[in-house]
Amino acid sequence: MACVAVASLLRTIELEFLQYHPRPLVLHYHLISPNKHLIQSFHQKLEFLITQFDDNSIHGVEAVKRLVTKLRDLAFRMEDEIEILVAQLYDDEYLDGVADLFVEEEDELRVEDLYVEKSLRDTDAEKTTQPCVKLGQVFQIAMEEIEAIKEELVKIKAEGRKTAHDVLQRSQLLSSQHASHSKEEMVGKEDEFGTIKKLLTQLGSKEKKVVSLIGMGGIGKTTLARQVYEDPSVSIHFDVRAWVVASQLHNKRQMLVGLLDSISKQGNLENSTDEDLALKLYQCLKRQRYMVVVDDVWSGEAWDDVSNCFPDDGNGSRVLLTTRLADVAKHISPKNDFSHHMRLLDHTESWKLFCEKAGKSRGAEFEIIGRSIVEKCKRLPLAIVVVAGLFSKLNTLHTK
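Given the sequence above, the corresponding structure tokens read:
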């Protein structure tokens, strides 16, 4: 909202005062010439200031949110003051023009009424203050306010830098621990993990993007999505995360409730309508940089049921969607620029995954039987993991 308000104010300033050929009325009242440097300076500082709020290092800080509110209110108020001042000039021109017309028609009584109307409308301050002076006062007061906002922002950033190094070290430590814990789950998927992580946190514009993870059943879509979702460096990148399973027989209400509960336990939602739930979810995500996983989507309808609940605030929010069907991904994102087709494991990766899941036995019999089993799994991770578990149990019983 602050960006919208500031963009609108900047545009108003450009149209009224910074055009190569300003409006004749603005020139007639000499609004620009005595205030030109002040107007240009304010415009430049405001443009620069708004870019400072787009710094990821201060994203989500409560103190920054208060400054954004101050900046938004300043933009709204200043635009109103400029528009009122310019409108006042047009009103004065109109009354003066009508008065001149009546002078020509020798209607002195009506002329007197018009000037009385104009004088009653003006306050004592307005009678003694020229429009160009009033405009200068508007810009000067606003300039002082944005300087104060800028100073507060500098202090907040300075405080943030003091702890940034510690936060980075803690994130790296957690990432290392998480990677070690998940090593078996990620066999053959390390590159794809990096690809999805980059799509979620590094690539693309600030607009909301849907990242589609496409692949046949058992290829490891959900496992990969879960690993990315739980990765500490990903979780620290987003303000809010949520996860829901759509499934082949999706249910809109269950999906909405699942997403809300994933964000935070919402209490009794039984009496809420689907519209209430959708609105509540939208409000939970609004103005937050969020990551939402919609797992196992089988149809465009399942996506359409919840897609309007995901606001686009231009802050880099992402939706990670897993599906077996390329047509579903295309329905959701026709450009296909944020889609990833998962690949099957190669033979080496398949055997490595089987060995890690089947146990430590590495005898000749294990090699012969195991490789035959892996071959029949057709390089599907889920099939390999399931069969390796059964093989491990049978091997344990055999050695007793």
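The two ends are 69 Å apart (CA to CA). Try to locate this feature in the token string yourself.
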